[in-house]
Description:
alpha+beta
Amino acid sequence: MMRGFTCRIRPTPLAGAPAGRLALVLGASVLGGCFGPSTPAVTSEAKSAASLGAVAALSTAEFDRVVKPLLKGSCVECHNPTRFKGKLDLERFLTASASDALQHRELWETVISRVRTGEMPPEDEPRPPAEQLAAATKWIEGHYAQVDRAAPLNPGRLTARRLNRVEYNNTVRDLLGVNLRFADDFPPDPEGHGFDNNADVLSLSPVLTEKYLSAAEAVAQAAIPGTPPPSLTARYDSQVMGQRLRLHIQTTHHFPVDARYKIRLGWEQGNPEGSRYTGYIYIDGKEVLKQPVVFKTYQDRSIYLNDVLIPQGTRRVEARMEVAPASEQPRGGRPRPPYPTVLEISGPFNGVSKEQTESYRRIFFAGPPTAERPAAYAREIFARLLPRAFRRPVTKSEVDQIVKLSDLVRSRGSSFEEGIRVGLTAMLMSPHFLFRIERDPKGTPDGAVYKVSDPEFASRLSYFLWRSMPDDALLALAEQRRLHEPDVLKAQVQRMLADPKGYSLASDFAGQWLQIRNLETNIPDRGAFPDYDLPLRDAMRTETELFFQAMIGEDRNVLDLLDGNFTFLNERLAKHYGIPGVEGREFRRVELPAGERGGVITHASVLTVTSYPTRTSPVIRGKWMLETILNAPPPPPPPNVPTLDSPAVGKTVSLRQQLEKHRASAECATCHNRMDPLGLALENYDGIGRWRMKEGEVPIDASGRLPNGTTFSGGQELKAILRADAPRFIRSLSEKMLMYALGRGLEIYDRPAIEQVARRVEQNEGRMSELIAAVIESTPFQMRRRDAAPIASAELPRPVHSMPTP
């Protein structure tokens, strides 16, 4: 059994369960997370030391001539065992050999990073000649590059991991045609290294196990509807949902079947007789009702969308009321806006027959079942479904297991459809569906490196680009063992990116990398920002996603992420930015004039999630820049950090002046000298991304000075500095995308792959297509290492099916 892993399937009796209900539960005893790391953690310095052993003896004379004088003249006065500034002792290396000194790779890479950015030596200390710094940096980096070239090929090992919420929803949708997003009710997925697909943190808890079972049964029921679901009315109250006193009400609603539904929007009363409005209702952003309203004192204050056909799925339902122009109002007045108070959704009515639904046709591919050959038809159904659900070829015994369960249900008096429904539940509870499991080829020796199989490679591709299962085209190529062929792979990647499912790179990768998912939880204060509402929040997120999608679709230079002179706006967001000429809810591409806007750094989505609810935060914005753009996150702040005097900000002092409190402490200054200038450069943008020249009554000063002495004034000049340092941003983005694609953190042995990806992007005009292709063609993405204690085939968790006694 894999070290650090205990996961078994056991039957669980369900009290009061009706006859025929499947009891199929994953029982997990978690040690560091189910399907956690397969080997004990090894420190990066130990790995570095092992690699150094493979390199020829290093030149101690060169180390003595180039590096030691720099340490002696500029470093050891502060970084010694006595003063120990930054908890760093460099004095010990004055008597060390080159080989011994370079065993500490992480330490030297940190030193090089601080020297290169100008943080060290400090501003008030004399700086050594640039030639001396360059020579020492080049010597150290050159030897580590030699280490990497000499080290054995090591692609790492992707641990088996469960599908996260997004992947579960998408996989169910693409497998069965059920788009009800049951996983939205699961506990939130934890993040590892900034992403929610990290194998090391996707553990399996008892609560989640029960959620999986409930979802599996619900999916099976939705895929093969029985009796028509009852007609119900769901009421969404704006005050309960925290949307009170907004001109807009929004919710998500599960429409259980393809059917006709009724939607009612109610609003508060109290306006003058004859006041005119227009009511709107939208489903998934598409306008389905536009209705003029004339206010009368005793009328029903509602508008209705009656008898509308809505396909099955979890959909966003929105409604709003708009005041008509003053010229249309009685006596030319301007009544106050009618705030929506309630949204009611009733149905289903007159549903589509189950035989006409997409899910039913996918499952019963040869038509509705008949009395003839039921067992044979059940076998054909699951022989088609299981390879897609498990994302690999299946054995006869695996099909037999599900078919026998289906036959058992039917033998107890249930219908053929009920038997298939129970079989679907078992399939969805199998670890081969819930987990992405990769197996070592038989006979592979410990520590060997090999290419992953084509079916496993198909899954790696699809969950990277689509966050979902491989489609039939990928699985067919995998079965033919052609997916690794360069021309075939290139064509498939292009096809997948052009598919609508390829939008997941914008919504999921960019959404997490840029942290704009936090718009859901980082809610600006209404008192400070009364114009902020749900349509504006959604428009902010959509702008950034469409911008990133255009970067891919137009194959632009990745540096345009920093300062691209275009964006995507609708009327709501354009007014927020003060950009004229954009009307309507639909988004369209807008070319931006030079000045205030350009690139994701100035998107309102980013500026909002990097602010406090009531004001901007140069510290949070600077930290975001270091983490997201430069991949150089600062350490956690020390305890007892002094708070800012918020009431005074904007009245008597500026935020810049308040931040000087942090830099007054030498301990704080180390990090704040890096963060604050980056954040202060964006102070012309308020807490929800609007341009401003003053902070209250105090003029904005957006100038700054970086630790290396470079000065700038405002965001535009800062973006120019970032673009000029293109290799650093390209490497940062390469690391982030490789981490997301692999679903694990990066290690020292991944350095050659990172360098190859970044170098390929730099050499090909920074094209997004080259970034994605380089990640997919990298050694860690295409290959795998066998560990000393892999899961044997016989040890893979198997579902245990238990039928309660009638």
